[in-house]
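A reminder before we start the practical. When you read a complex entry, don't treat the lines as separate problems. The point of joint prediction is that each chain is placed relative to the others, so the output describes one connected object in space. Small molecules and nucleic acid strands, if listed, are placed in the same frame. In the example below there are two entries. Take a minute to note the order of the lines before looking further.
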Amino acid sequence: MRDRYALALGDDALILAQRLGEWVARAPELEEDVALANIALDLLGQARSLLTYAGELEGAGRDEDALAYWRDDRDFRNVLLVELPGGDFAVTMARQLVFAAYQYELYDRLRASTDDTLAAVAGKAVKEVHYHRDHATQWVLRLGDGTDESHRRMAAGLETVWPYVDELFEPFDGADVDPAALREPWQAYVGAVLAEAGLEPPATGQHRTGGRRGLHTEHLGYLLAEMQHLHRSHPGATW
Amino acid sequence: MAGTEEREAAFYAIIDADGRIEPRDDMPEAYRRTLVRQIAQHAHSEIIGMQPEGNWISRAPSLRRKAILLAKVQDEAGHGLYLYAAAETLGVSRDQLLELLHARKQKYSSIFNYPTLTWADVGAIGWLVDGAAITNQVPLTRCSYGPYARAMVRICKEESFHQRQGFEALLTLTRGTPAQKAMAQDALDRWWYPSLAMFGPPDTGEQASGGHTEQSMRWGIKRFTNDELRQRFVDMTVPQSQVLGLTIPDPDLRWNEERGHYDFTPPDYDELFRVIKGDGPCNAQRLAHRVAAHEDGAWVREAAAAYAAKKQEVAA
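Here is the predicted structure of the whole assembly.
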């Protein structure tokens, strides 16, 4: 059970790191190339710890690379939110705010897990994610309350990601932290940021889900094809 | 107010004493212009250089290598930031310099106009390109202009770390499968001469760089000539290639006992000049990518500026 939990959290971090890496050398300003690479690196570090641990718990001899490179999309357990294409900078920041605020509440509680490894990963990650959340907050405020164009784009970014919010809080068998318990503090934080930015939470009636069961969007297959092709082209090689 | 001659004498007194010129010191306009051009070109090279390596972030063959590469490309963005800041001390803004880059009025290192075709190219860039950069840049830590010299101290430390990582990545390939070893050799075959060309035109002969070196040496900006640095790089790199078990693609490469240096075939300088003028494999692609990133981000920068202005108004 716990191996599936570690795998799901690890997949979330891995796939979002992959998406954020796409911004490197194309960010709106040099400071953002640095910041987005930094956030991607933090997430990649979390993913490596979590996948390594998932492999140990599974006991079938799979290490972080076996799990990252040799599973097909139906075996990935990340939420759909993290696999969506990066879109423009507003879509990316909308996702960052939603996801970092969720991850912050999650890791903050996971620190108290009876599982020492998960507690240790969470203890380190919560500090990183605190920065990720702050970074996204600052941008959502700037874009929401910047120019007419940035406001319009930020609102559209929220519309894009909002159907994928509910999945974050769905029940997960064997979770150390009940996802449903994260909803209220998440709502309080994100709601306050949006209010200050002069933005409304989108009134979407749509709820996309399935990632935790391996039912993904079409986007994930392409992401994995790119991420995995070199590793898979040389089976058994060491890099 | 001191006269022009006195001010020039004070400047050369600092230079001759191997002191540092600081932003508030008087300096000849030509010195300032040379430094702006050189620091800008260096800063542009850092940010354009993010592209060929960034090309492999999504495909890095292990999560560990992906993390190393992400960190490296992030460092390059950081180097760009310090260097633009160093240029700002000479009275030019980052925006102005980027405009000149985008309008093809300032250059960046020609090496980044070559494509990264395989994973081994990432290792080869670390080993050869960063190795050549360090050879060029270590003397710049003693450059007469203080802010540039200090930026170079930090940059050289990080570059030297990158160079070791690149070497280690290639070593892993050369000790790997036959396909991996072939990939490493192919990368060396393609990157060797462009790396030698990173030191610029030769000091003598028809293709020599017309007088820049001499003037820059007088000003304490440059400490060694292009050919001296090129030789130093070859002497350092040949033994490393032997550890890797790779063959440098130069049949005339051999140790010269008398000179105490390796003899080697110089790069094709005509090719170097063509690439500098814009006719390299990736010039158009690199610049188009940079301009697109800048243009796509314009609305974000405008929003940040508008937001900052609103906050300032409220505070006032």
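Discuss with your neighbour: Chain B has a mean pLDDT of 95. What might explain this?
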